[in-house]
Amino acid sequence: MKVLKRNQLVILVIALMLVTAGYLNFTSMHNDETSVANSINLADSNDSSIGDATLVNNDNVENVTNETPDNNEKDTDAKLVSTQDEKDYYFENSKLDRDKMYSQMLESYQKMYEGETVSIEQKTMAANEIAKINATRNAIMISENLIKTKGISDIVIFVNDTQISVVIDAEELAPEQIAQIQNIVSREMKAQIENIHISCK
Questions:
Q1: pLDDT of 196 higher than 50
Q2: What's the pLDDT tens digit per position in 25-59?
Q3: Which of 10, 114, 120, 144 is the most buried (most CB within 10 A)?
Q4: Buried-exposed string 77-105: b where 16+ CB fall within 10 A, e elsewhere
Q5: Is the overall model pTM greater than 0.70, yes or no?
Q6: What is the pLDDT of residue 60?
Q7: pLDDT value of position 180
Q8: Is pLDDT of 166 > 80?
Q9: 3-state secondary structure the chain
């Protein structure tokens, strides 16, 4: 009887061990399957997103397309400003250089006129040149101001003996504008029309 109970106890313990081992085995297998399934789902979700089109809000597209012309307009504005700055620089510097040249010439003739060892003929010649330079400067100033009243934004006039060069701040000039400029320069500077050369800057 004791042997039988002992055998039953051993069998019961073995049965419990088998049940426990089976339970543990089942649980670990279920966990492995879950993790494998999760890994597969994760991989599928990553793979499925490759090559898929993504919907974009129409407002964003409009903002992007609207920004591009604005940038182009800013670039164009910057170029226009840069070009205008170059023109302004040209006209301002040309006038300064011209005035500096006349000032130096006047200074030289003035020294000659005031020189103690200079002959009367040389003094007369110096006085005539001083008067001629002043008259030319005044005629240039009047001509430039009158031409500006005709709708020209800027102008610079150069005189080389009988030849007169007129540089206008404009893309192009209409025939009537050319005629007006020629008439003003011819009248104020006492120049022949064929000696007046007009160019646009």
A1: yes
A2: 656 555 555 444 454 444 454 444 444 444 444 44
A3: 144
A4: eeeeeeeeeeeeeebeebbeebeeebeee
A5: no
A6: 43
A7: 95
A8: yes
A9: CHHHHHHHHHHHHHHHHHHHHHHHHHHHHHHHHHHHHHHHHHHHHHHHHCCCCCCCCHHHHHHHHHHHHHHHHHHHHHHHHHHHHHHHHHHHHHHHHHHHHHHHHHHHHHHHHHCCCCCHHHHHHHHHHHHHHHHHHHHHHHHHHHHHCCCCCCEEEEEECCEEEEEECCCCCCHHHHHHHHHHHHHHHCCCHHHEEEEEC
| Domains of the chain as residue ranges with CATH | 77-200 (1.10.287.4300)
For 187, the token pair is 């009248």
22 pLDDT more than 80: no
166 CB contacts (<8 Å, ≥6 apart)? 147, 155, 156, 157, 181, 185, 196, 197, 198, 199
Tokens of residue 83, six digits: 């070009």
Dihedrals φ, ψ of 93, to 5°? Answer: -65, -40
How far apart (Å, rounded) are the C-alpha atoms in residues 151 and 142? 15
Contacts of 113 (CB under 8 A, 6+ apart): 123, 126, 127, 130
